[in-house]
Amino acid sequence: MARKCFISFKTEDMAYKEALQAMDIDMVDKSLDDPIDSDDEDYIMRRIRDEYLSDSTVTIHLIGSQSAGNLGDDEQYFIKKELQASLYNGEGNSRNGILGVVLPSVYGSVYMGSINCSPCASTISSVDVGDSTTISEFHANYHIPHGKCHWTDDDRYCELVTWDDFILDPEMYIEKAHQKRFHPISNKVRVRP
Q1: What is the pTM of this model?
Q2: Residue 66 neighbours by CB distance under 10 Å
Q3: Which domains does the chain have, with CATH numbers?
Q4: What pLDDT digit, counting tens, does each position of 90-119 carry?
């Protein structure tokens, strides 16, 4: 079933957005393709929420070299607001599933290899999903606080995948993000961390 997807990205990653849009994916693209002609940031966000995000169900967040939270709120204003609107669940807006697609330029910054979890002796994949790689709206809902020694897929609202894995089966990853909307973890989402 086609999911309505909004693509959140930094201008520097436009080529990946266009590549995604050119793929043969069973999705309804709800993305903003042309800039909104205004200098009023509130007006721009209201238009994005009303015309693009309000009826989408999955936000595909492209994570590249300019997506880090430590670049400052002014630099990240639009992607922060897009993720906040995507995470909000209220009248006229249902929460989107969030799919973070890590672009090749930051694989080495995000994916840290495998480590052994000493409390449970499991081998787990280590990722750096924090202010140095993503905005807080993403990483706060990827690493939702819990009392376990490490996170599992059931402990995360946001999904994370490399670009290379995503392009092999985009519909599967979009569907995984969509299904998180109905998972118990959705009750722990933080819209403005």
Answers
A1: 0.93
A2: 16
A3: 3-188 (3.40.50)
A4: 877 789 999 999 999 999 999 999 999 889
